[in-house]
Amino acid sequence: MTTRTLRIVLLLGLVLLFFSGSYTQARELQRPIPRPQTVLVPTTYINESFDLANFPSLNWSTTIITSTDTPDPEWTYVTSATRPTAQPHTGAGMAHFNSYSTINGNAARLSVVLTPTTSVLRISFWYYHSAIFPTSADMLLLQTSSDGQNYITRAGYPRYRATDGWTQYQLDLPFASADQPFYLGFLGISDFGANLLLDDVLIQDTPPIEIFGTTSNQGCAGDTLLYPLSVRNNYPSDQMLNLNLAASAWPSSLPFNQLAIPAQSSRPITVSVQIPATAQPHSSDQTTLQLSNALVDLNQAIVTNCALGQWVDREDSLVAARYSSVVSADGALFQIGGQGPNNNSPALGNTLRYQPITGSWQQRAAMTTPVFGADAAALNGEIYVAGGYTTGGSTTTGLISSLQIYSPTLDTWRNGPSLPIALAYYQSAVVNGKLYIIGGSNGSNALASVWIFDPVNQTWNAGPAMTTARAFASAGVIGNKMYVAGGTATISNQTAMDTMEIYDANLGFWMPAPNLPRRQMQGGDAQILDRFFVITTGYSMPVVASNSSLIFDQQTNQWSEVLLNSSRYGAEADSINDTVFVVGGRQFANNVFTMSSRNESFQICRFVLTTATPTPTATNTPTATATNTPTNTATATSTSTATNTPTNTSTNTPTNTLTVTLTPTNTATPTATNTPTDTPTSTVTNSPTNTPTATQPIDLPDLFLPLVGVELR
Fold first, then answer.
1. Do residue 188 and residue 233 come from a single domain?
2. Second label for 254, Cα 20 to 30 Å away, from 125, 291, 312, 540?
3. Residue 607 — pLDDT band, cuts 50, 70, 90?
4. CA–CA distance, 269 with 304 (Å, rounded to integer)
5. What pLDDT sits at residue 507?
6. In a domain, 102, yes or no
């Protein structure tokens, strides 16, 4: 290579090196700059707990809107309240509007001004509902304004509710203008009733991406549960989200891995989770739905529980009512009486029959005296309804002691001997062929009393009182034991209880039992296959209505919770074979109470029954060794029959050694017939061998239905 050629090659190399460096640098500059992550914690504009005596706080103001008489309907700071009696939800103070002593129609507004950076705000606050002065429609209105002068009402919240307590409300307000003043007002309006109480006001931006829908569910082993979710994009531009499920023990899946959502819109997505066939009741698993892009990184936990059973919807009743009597008899379910549609409604006289085979309701003969707040029981093929209210419901007005008896075969009503006292909201049970009326209300107080009706002698007698006074409780019978749970010990200011006690009819006394997992009252009750005691729906403060059903397993001495498809209280329930039905009640949604005609049924999972370890009741065959003075011959004869829940019959020889002393005048358990010639003292030694632990297959009816999804609220 010549010197000239070498120079040309070197020159070309330098030129290429220069341009290649420049090209590389240009490509680096053209790479997209990573978008900054949006802060997941929304901007908080107002977080006011009204804990300072300097009231109103900075940026807050009070304005009297209407005042036709003194004292003024003003908003003030208080550390405690009367009419209603209440303490702050949190902290040292709360905002208080005078409705009690100012004339009806007077109004005042508590307002705050802020300058948001977005056009959609989210407000949450705590508001106190009270049960006093039920006819006074004191009201809180939530209002917005852009100038602080002209307000528009966005929502209204009545003060009265049947139970006292704080309730949190949340509302999105897409009415603001970014970087412009925005006014939020709480307008109190007096109806000469109880005062209004407000606490813990929080105003924030809405988060950019949100997930709504069912995030917790339960089913039987082997079920595949679907979680229908809705993903909302609150951002002003379209978003493409990446979807993923975190690893979990139970199989889970998504229908797709990316989701496009237009601006300020929602799109559905369904997560599928399979409960393994080997899963045990009370076990659970959690998977996490992960949504991410340059805007957001959001995780949503999804919990799946292996439950004892499942609730499904059935044909609605013909009548919407609460405080009905629901009882099974003659292979059918009966809904009797009840109240609707509000607190002042008189009692209903309906007798409705539901046939599970056809899934239909029929109207039967009306009651002699319409009542609500009674608890019917089936005895000797007939239905007994004692006491109850004909009207009213909270005092002695309308409270009766009558006993009404219905024959499902003849479709007729007749009267029986009245209760010794008038009462309602009690629990009934049938044990050893007798009717028990347990607890309840005499119109003023909750009672611990027990009344026992003997259908042979047609008489009422007082039984051993409970250890705790209870009204609105739940009761069930397993074997010869009555389980009474929950309820309230007070009538005027009802507070639910979580205690349970058991009455042993053979021993004749009450004893404590495991507490409920939550406070519960005004729920239905039933028992399944002489093993499970079920409490359906009801409520516990501060929740107004619940979709919880609590199930007590007599074999394991353990409580479980299985959620209904609806939230209700004042519903009633009973069982037919292995199926529990809960009917009626009262729902609370969108600040409105409505009577319900809903009918749901519950069945224990097959897996629970088919793997149950029976606890037999064994009757032993003794061998008697008699020591006689002076001359005796004792012959003991016994037949052993063990009955295993629910349908198996076996002869068991337990492992314990039992010593029984027999006298000539006694018939012992096990049943023994003795023929002595004098007064012997006989020692009987039993040599049983085992308690079976084998799997007991159970034949179930063809009413088993698939699970219907439950939304947690």
1. no
2. 312
3. confident
4. 17
5. 92
6. yes
Compute the C-alpha angle 274/280/285, nearest 5°: 45
Q: Region 51-77: what's the mean pLDDT?
A: 90
Nearest to 196 by CA among 143, 152, 137: 137
Asked whether residue 344 falls in the same domain as residue 222, the answer is no
| pLDDT at residue 543, rounded to an integer | 65
Residues 489 and 631 in one domain: no
580 and 690 within one domain: no
| 482 and 431 Cβ atoms separated by less than 8 Å | yes
Q: From CA 13, how far away is CA 422, in angstroms rounded? A: 111
Residues 200 and 247 in one domain: no
Q: From residue 206, how far is each of 73, 236, 427, 576 by CA, in Å? A: 33, 12, 48, 49
**Residue 199: CATH number of its domain:** 2.60.120.200
Inter-residue contact 666 to 680 (CB < 8 Å): no
State the Cα–Cα distance between residues 476 and 467, nearest whole angstrom. 17
CATH number at residue 301: 2.60.40.2310
* Domain edge (last residue) among 610, 634, 668: 610
* 3-state class (DSSP) for residue 250: coil
Q: Are residues 409 and 523 in the same domain?
A: yes
Bridge partners, residue 81, by sequence: 86
pTM here is 0.62
- Read off the pLDDT of residues 270-322 as tens digits, 9 standing for 90 and up: 999 999 999 998 899 999 999 999 888 999 999 999 999 989 999 999 999 99
Domain-located, residue 176: yes
Which token pair is 421?
A: 């006292």
Average pLDDT value for residue range 548-573: 92
Taking the C-alpha atoms of residue 485 and residue 561, their distance in angstroms, rounded to an integer, is 15
Are the C-beta atoms of residues 497 and 540 closer than 8 Å to each other? no
Q: What gap in Å lies between CA 315 and CA 601, rounded to an integer?
A: 10
Backbone angles phi and psi of 672, in degrees to 5: -130, 135
In a domain, 267, yes or no: yes
Mention every residue, 6+ apart, whose C-beta is less than 8 A from residue 236: 263, 264
Helices (H) and strands (E) counted in the chain, each on its own, are: 2, 51
Q: What range defines the domain where residue 676 resides?
A: 616-697
**DSSP per position, 317-355:** PSS--BS-EEEEETTEEEEE--B-SSTTPPBP--EEEEE
Q: What is the DSSP letter of 125?
A: E
Q: How far apart are CA 47 and CA 54, in angstroms?
A: 16
Answer whether residue 388 is part of any domain.
yes
Burial of 103 (0-12, 13-18, 19+ CB in 10 A): middle
Q: Can you tell me the distance from the alpha carbon of 368 to that of 359, in angstroms, rounded to the nearest whole number? A: 27
Residue 583: partners with Cβ closer than 8 Å, 6 or more residues away: 317, 324, 326, 333, 335, 354, 524, 571, 572, 573, 597, 598, 599
Query: Are 537 and 628 part of one and the same domain?
Result: no
Asked if 276 and 364 sit in the same domain, the reply is no
